[in-house]
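User: Please run a holo structure prediction.
Assistant: Happy to. Please share the sequence and the ligand.
User: Here you go; the ligand is 4'-deoxy-4'-aminopyridoxal-5'-phosphate.
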Amino acid sequence: MKYAQSVLDLIGNTPLIKLNHVTDGIQATVLVKLEYVNPGGSIKDRIAARMIEEAERDGKLKPGGTIIEPTSGNTGVGLALVAQQKGYKCIFVVPDKVGEDKRAVLQAYGAEVVVTPSAVAPDSPQSYYSVSDRLVTEIPGAYKPDQFSNPAAPLSHYESTGPEIWRDTDGRVTHCVIGAGTGGTITGTGRFLKEVSANRAESDGGRVRIIGADPAGSVYSGGTGRPYFVEGVGEDMWPANYDKSVPDQVIAVSDADSFAMTRRLAREEGLLVGGSSGMAVVAALETARDLPEDAVVVVILPDSGRGYLAKIFNDQWMRSYGFLSGGEEASVGEVIK
Ligand code: PMP
């Protein structure tokens, strides 16, 4: 019989897939690593598992303990499913601007969601940072993983994502393109790939180049932290888990280009992925354009497009922000009587 012992065994070992249609005019091989096939639907399952294991080992999380994190997105789902399987409670603190749908997903996994007002300063006692800090001190056995500073987050990528890319490309990857949010993925994956290829001959590709992909406006690509619409990536501050020495280059990508590519990936490659995936592919194609045939560019696609149907895949939403330039409508929309 072939089966997994639990969903936890299905985290990681995600597939690489060659892009065949959005790569017109490109000689290099461009491969995407499809993270939405993780059981929680995103790359964040990897860090959730590792952060919880580490906390158990350090005695920070004891049987019956409660995990508390200010998160509404993919990290919450990862933590909720790992916590549930291991018998811990989860409380997520989310600002009220987070949509009902996202809260409902966390609740569906059995997590408790505490909603805080968005329109308050970060140091207000009502802010979601303050509320989560207070809950950690008030609830016995509470533990806050803190994905922005927890070293287990980049470590999970150093030990899984990076080695998987090296193994599945038979050590032939030459460039890896990664979007940065908390910085965990690029720091851990990039560090591993640079180390493992440090002594590779130039004729075999030399050391792997790590390319950061960043929403235009975010600090990683020299912005001020001004707002952008791509979710999950970019920052207005420098998190502890982002190691500036890892990326060889950071490419800024506009919202419009990120979303146009996200839609093309769904329509032309059969990959329904999120906006940060489209953003990373734009940066990868820019990188690959000048590379020879034997270059192998790997791009990490962090999550699925299912969570963005009302935005990126909705013509009205796209048009209202000026992201549709025409000719890209999703459907004809004719009613046949
Ligand atoms: N894309 C999406 C959709 C994400 O949720 C995240 C996590 N914030 C990232 C990319 C970036 O990953 P990291 O936090 O490891 O930099």
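Strands lie at 16-18, 29-34, 66-69, 89-95, 112-116, 142-143, 175-179, 209-215, 249-253, 296-301.
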